[in-house]
Predict the structure of Probable thymidylate kinase.
Amino acid sequence: MLITLEGLDGSGKTTVWEALRERHPDATFTREPTDSWYGEAVARSIAADDADPLAELFLYTADHANHLSETVRPALDDGDLVVSDRYSDSRFAYQAATLAASDIALDGRDPLEYVKSIHAPFSRPPDATIYLDLDPRTAAERAGRTNKFERDGYLAAVRDNYERLIDAEPERFVRVDATRSPEAVTARVAEVVADLIEN
Ligand SMILES: Nc1ncnc2c1ncn2[C@@H]1O[C@H](COP(=O)(O)OP(=O)(O)O)[C@@H](O)[C@H]1O
Ligand SMILES: Cc1cn([C@H]2C[C@H](O)[C@@H](COP(=O)(O)OP(=O)(O)O)O2)c(=O)[nH]c1=O
C-alpha cells in the first residue's frame, strides 16, 4: 500500500513522517524530492529564483520517475507499506501554480490538468493521501520563508490546487487539521494510517 503525505511547506509533513517511521519500522519511508542526483538537480532548481517553470516541472518529474523505479515499485512489489513525504500531488499543486503565474500558454490547457496528464501514462497513484491542512500564512511562517515557494500568495494558489485535487478524488484524500499541536496531528495521522492498513 502506498500512502502519501501532502500539504503546504511547514504543514508538518516531515514531523509526522518521522513519528510514523518509529511506529512502522518495517515499512519503506521515502520522500520527494529524493536524495538521488535527480533530486539534487531539483534542489538546484528550487534555489534558482529564475528557473524556467517547464524545465523545473520536468526535473521534478524526472526525479519522480526514478523514485518510482528505484524505490516505490520495488517496495510495493515486496508487499511493503510505503509512506512518501510528498509525491505526485505536490507537482499537481505546486508546478500548476508556477505555470499559471507564468506567461507560458500551454496551448490553452489548464496547468493542473496538463501536469496530471504527463504523469498519467507512467506514474503509480497513491492508495491514500493524508492532506495536512494549514492556512498559507501559518505555513509560510512555520517554514521560515526560506525558499521561493514559501510565500503566502504563492502558497494560497498551491492550496487552491490541493482543494481541486481533493474535490476530484475525495475518496483518496484524508484531510487532517494541521493547526493543532504536533502531538495531536501526529496522533490523528497515526490513527488514519492504522485504519488504512487494517481495511
Ligand atoms: N502541528 C504543529 N504545530 C506547530 N508547529 C509545528 C507543527 N508541526 C510541525 N511544526 C514545526 O513547523 C516547522 C515545519 O515542520 P515540518 O514537519 O518540517 O513541515 P513540512 O515537512 O510540512 O515542511 C518545524 O519547525 C516544526 O517543528
Ligand atoms: C516534491 C515537490 C516539491 N516541491 C516544492 C515544495 C517545497 O517548497 C520544496 C522542497 O520540498 P520539501 O523538501 O518537501 O519541503 P518542505 O519540507 O518545506 O515541505 O519543493 C514542488 O514544488 N513540487 C514537487 O513536486
